[in-house]
Amino acid sequence: MSKKVLLLHGWGGSDYPHWQSWLAGELARDYGTVCFPLLDHPHFPSKNRWMRQVKAMLEAFRPDVVICHSLANTLWFHLCEEGAIAPVEHLFLVAPPRLDCEIETIKSFFPVTPPANLFAENVQLVTSTTDPYMTPEEARSLRAALDVPMMVLEDAGHINADSGYGEWPWILEQLQEIK
């Protein structure tokens, strides 16, 4: 794959055996260009600090593809609302939390409004029927607000290592299909 891929983790990071870690390894193994940064203090994140970091990465790395997991989706929404980012070709929004999450440690990220512009030519929302951070109804509302395609995984939890998503061939196949 000749595209540059930026992987953005959520609260707590996405280290091995998470699918983002696996995907970074698979892309690098085939000489792909991948950026998989550990954002500052992943267990105690700061929205403003993460926004500054990701804006700097976007400017320096200039990705074609961005793949967000969990809290990174919320971060992307804030970046879109601010409007100071360059558009990407492909955006994957995987397992976003609800827009009004009330977890104390990540409260600086909420509430968030779905942005009118996602700064991406192609968007794929991926949710689960059993995500503890977003109900299927909330996922359908988000899909409608964003007006993007949505793939719903059955009983996939938060689509992370704890729910069996260490290796995730589907996401790798999606990237391999991008020319």
Description of the structure:
The chain has 179 residues and is of the alpha/beta class. It has a single domain, classed as Alpha/Beta hydrolase fold, catalytic domain (Rossmann fold, 3-Layer(aba) Sandwich), CATH 3.40.50. It is built from 5 helices and 6 strands; from the N terminus they run βαβαβαββαβα. The chain has a 6-stranded parallel sheet, with helices on both faces. α4 (136-146) links the parallel β5 (120-128) and β6 (150-153). Keywords: Hydrolase. This is Alpha/beta hydrolase. Pfam families: Ser_hydrolase (PF06821). InterPro entries: AB_hydrolase_fold (IPR029058), RBBP9/YdeN (IPR010662).
What is the string of helix and strand elements?
EHEHEHEEHEH
Average predicted local confidence, pLDDT: 96
Give the tally of structural domains: 1
Strand order of the largest sheet: 2-1-3-4-5-6
Shape: globular
Distance between the termini: 7 Å
> Which quaternary structure do these chains form?
single chain
Model regions low in confidence, pLDDT < 50 over at least 5 residues: none
Radius of gyration: 15 Å
Report the structural category: alpha/beta
- The helix content, as a percent range, equals 25-40%
